[in-house]
């Protein structure tokens, strides 16, 4: 049966047949993936069944290439496969430099301001974004002025196309006129390849206010008045702290002791704080600060009597004699709110600071070690006869005596063990009373 008669058979059970020459039973692949995109297969190989369908359409005559093979094409005449636009124009952007004028109302220094922007045209979807370079200390919001979107060209529903952008043209976007003066090399080459004439680049005009401001800054040198200026201290002495190790000598009073502290002086605002150094089992609450950060006057008594010292801290209106960095030195005793603190050592930053500013090089630490306190050995008083020996001994250990603890191990080991002794009564005669007494001899 010929191939034409086979195709005329009805597609019913018993009339179908199996192609003996067919080796592939999958559906033909007409698309392929290249660079993540689906493109049609240029040279599709037909299956034997497709050959029969083609032969039936052409009649009983045979197709020439089925007999003599496929005709070889000239490689010079072969054209590359066509790619979709979203693959061709992916990550291809036209960049233009432009500016616009912004009118300034109610200002004596300037009437208008010229702002420079970058216009980006994305060829993949014909969208446009406009951004302004951020200028330091400009005082105006800068950055992204128009987000990426299709911008309307007119009221008729048309949008801006890449042919509308060129050097020397003005475009109106949302009521603001942008004048294009330059573009990058790739944008120029693309426009020229599309047959569009690109004029030579122009220079961006300068902002008159910024030009005037730079001229003023060039002829004036602004410096701070002195090192006591608050702004100068903030810029140069911020986070610089002098650290001294000190002790509070209070042993001349009843129940006094030698307590260790750390004094930190902040150079940025001449404030200080005192932290207590806690020791193991010192019997004090672990409060971190002995004196919180504040400006401390040298003479606290030299304050007006009407000032409420009990509830408020003195300010600059009450006194101007505050502690500063020149009042501290290793080996010096300073009085802070009626307490004498001996500065016996400091850290490396403090040494370098005083060496550079005051020329001090002697930072020999002071030995403040004291002899350890020897506690007297507690002696047990003699037995007073009340109660048992163990009960009386408990009153020496605490004010509220506790019952003595029993030795459980001894009780378990010696349970049921009893020592038995035999004794004989000896009769002796006393020389004084001449009475006969009996004594036990063990």
TrEMBL record:
All copies of the DM10 domain together span 90-195, 238-358
The protein's UniProt keywords, in alphabetical order, are:
Cell projection, Cytoplasm, Cytoskeleton, Repeat
Key word Transcription present in the record?
no
Instruction: Give compartment(s).
Output: Cytoplasm, Cytoskeleton, Cilium axoneme
Which segment of the chain is annotated as a signal peptide?
none
* Pfam families (alphabetical): DM10_dom (PF06565)
**Record carries keyword Magnesium:** no
Q: What InterPro entries is this protein classified in?
A: DM10_dom, EFHC1/EFHC2/EFHB
For this protein, the record's PANTHER family field holds: EF-HAND DOMAIN C-TERMINAL CONTAINING PROTEIN (PTHR12086), EF-HAND DOMAIN-CONTAINING PROTEIN 1 (PTHR12086:SF9)
Q: What is this protein called?
A: EF-hand domain-containing protein 1-like isoform X4
Query: In which organism is this protein found?
Result: Limulus polyphemus
